Amino acid sequence: DQQVKQNSPSLSVQEGRISILNCDYTNSMFDYFLWYKKYPAEGPTFLISISSIKDKNEDGRFTVFLNKSAKHLSLHIVPSQPGDSAVYFCAGTYSGAGSYQLTFGKGTKLSVIP
Amino acid sequence: ETGVTQSPTHLIKTRGQQVTLRCSSQSGHNTVSWYQQALGQGPQFIFQYYREEENGRGNFPPRFSGLQFPNYSSELNVNALELDDSALYLCASSYDQGANTGELFFGEGSRLTVL
């Protein structure tokens, strides 16, 4: 049972345009969501997060939107740059776990074309 | 400030063997988590160690075990290796298992191939 789903394995975007990466979740207990970015041969690096009490969080070119009723979140990157080309993982967690037990999606590979 | 380091980076084992993977946490971090990332999948939580005790475990059999040492470094041990254990094993460190920001700092991983 996949609790976090990223239904687009890949996405190609022109440099300067907006990249929108989507993520759906099924576990209603999740109260915190994160996006991680992974380059080849490197570990995932934290990008941005959002608490379930918010519907938007912004950090520079990156914005995450959360729609709790739809159990859907999205990551917007504006403007997209070639250095953003990487695999992006969406993850959910819940405070009752008592540990950093993140549940990840399968990832979306973003390619930003110069 | 040193980041999370893992060793070895690559290794090959045969079915039935045992393997030990090592992780040094980022300076100042007292919590270590281990994740398994199979090909084409997202990282999957194995377990977490906080103050040398396991305080969270994912859906992995007992042949996956771990240790955390007083300096907060950690080991992941896998016994009776199976072909499906072939994966990238990621170690992640954080400060205080209960802070619930969820932000983990990952190492580059250990790529295990089981033949």
In short:
Chain A is an all-beta fold. Chain A has no helices and eleven strands.
Which two chains have the most extensive interface, and how many residues on each? A-B, 27 and 30 residues
Shape of chain B: globular
Secondary-structure element order of chain B, as H and E? Answer: EEEEEEEEEEE
Give me the number of helical elements of chain A: 0
How would a crystallographer describe the biggest sheet of chain A? 6 strands, mixed
Tally of helical segments of chain B? 0
Describe this structure in words.
In chain A, a hairpin with a 4-residue loop joins strand 7 and strand 8 (72-77). Chain A has no helices and eleven strands. Chain A has 114 residues and is an all-beta fold. In chain A, strands 2, 4, 5, 9, 10 and 11 form a six-stranded mixed beta sheet that branches. Chain A has a five-stranded antiparallel beta sheet with strand order 1-3-8-7-6, with no helix packed on it. Chain B has 115 residues and is mainly beta. Chain B is 0% helix and 50% strand. In chain B, strands 2, 4, 5, 6, 9, 10 and 11 form a seven-stranded mixed beta sheet that branches. Classes of the chains: A mainly beta (114), B mainly beta (115).
